Amino acid sequence: TEVPNVRLNNGVEIPQLGFGVYQIEPEETVEAVSHALRTGYRHIDTAQMYRNEKEVGQAIAESGIDRADIFVTTKLANDKHDFDAALAAFDQSLADLRLDRVDLFLIHWPLPTVGDGNYVETWKALERIYTDGRARSIGVSNFQPHHLRKLHADAGIRPAVNQIELHPYLTQDELRAFDADHEIATEAWSPIAQGAVLSDPTILELARTYGKTPAQVVLRWHLQLGNIVFPKSVTPGRVRENFDIFDFEISTGDLGLISALNKSERIGPDPDTFD
Ligand code: NAD
Fold first, then answer.
1. How many domains does the chain contain in total?
2. Predicted TM-score of the model (pTM)
3. Is 32 contained in some domain?
4. Atom of ligand 1 nearest to the CA of 108
5. pLDDT 10s digit of each residue in the chain, 275 long?
6. Where does the NADP-dependent oxidoreductase domain lie (predicted)?
7. In angstroms, what is the span from residue 255 Cα to ligand 1's centroid?
8. At what angle do helices 252-259 and 201-210 cross, to 10 degrees?
9. Which residues line the pocket of ligand 1, CB cutoff 6 A?
10. Is residue 273 part of a domain?
């Protein structure tokens, strides 16, 4: 299977389909990531707050796959926003992941309640890391347009991606358009809404039409919209299923039917209040 790449605004290529490890227990992570790599996934999305970077690092080291062939993302913990704390936390991530650089490092949440535009200072630490060559690209997560405008006003380096909650019940049309207008790639977290969209009658009907599973239909919808996705599962059959989405094409009309399921309904926190 050839997973297409998305070219980021600095020329770095990221596989459009990856494997997310949020809520995978450390004891389960080596096996889960190893299985994903055996299945063909070459993009792993972790975070300091997931507490499984060490196990991700172990699975990568033991895989025997060339480091250059695996795209690794991690994210700054919410309690490490201060400049020096961010640099130290990043050092710890590299040590835990057993890497000398990551492919993408993100500010996990804007935390606007911590202080007005505090993330602009945090971004300076990410710029330093990028300039030092220890992250091939840097970006943000859970940023709204007003956060991005504030960041852009001060940033020397523009974020390459914005990772946001995005699925058929929260299609984020405005934010996706804002990202696109500013050459920011959109990554969709909880791409299948942690399973909530899989029993939707429209999705079930389309799954029958295309002879694929509900998860495959929803993930394919993301890819055709241009979103980068990394569904999570610890069940080997589902990990394979979520990777097997390159042998069919959803029609433009059916893409529209899925997008019309939008209810602007979050399953996760609101970035404007979450601290
Ligand atoms: P997801 O939408 O990927 O759903 C995962 C859940 O869906 C699984 O636990 C399982 O119960 C079910 N599932 C998975 N594949 C299935 C299949 N084929 N059939 C039926 N059920 C299936 O949700 P997620 O884990 O929240 O999001 C994916 C990744 O996004 C995370 O692992 C993490 O890397 C990232 N994420 C980032 C943020 C952020 O704030 N930046 C927040 C949440 C998640």
1. 1
2. 0.98
3. yes
4. 41
5. 689 999 999 999 999 999 999 999 999 999 999 999 999 999 999 999 999 999 999 999 999 999 999 999 999 999 999 999 999 999 999 999 999 999 999 999 999 877 666 899 999 999 999 999 999 999 999 999 999 999 999 999 999 999 999 999 999 999 999 999 999 999 999 999 999 999 999 999 999 999 999 999 999 999 999 999 999 999 999 999 999 999 999 999 999 999 999 999 999 999 999 88
6. 22-262
7. 21
8. 160
9. 20-23, 45, 108, 141-142, 163, 189-195, 198, 215, 230-233, 238, 241-242, 268
10. no
Nearest CA to ligand 1 atom 36: 189
Structural domain boundaries enclosing 207: 5-259
Best residue for ligand 1 mutational test, from 39, 216, 232, 245 (most atoms within 8 Å of Cβ): 232
Which of 148, 147, 130 is CA-nearest to residue 138?
130
What CATH number does the domain containing 247 carry?
A: 3.20.20.100
Query: Is 50 annotated in the active site?
Result: yes
In a domain, 99, yes or no: yes
Q: Which residue is listed with tokens 């852009």?
A: 152
Ligand 1 pocket test, candidate residues 104, 175, 192, most atoms within 8 A of CB: 192
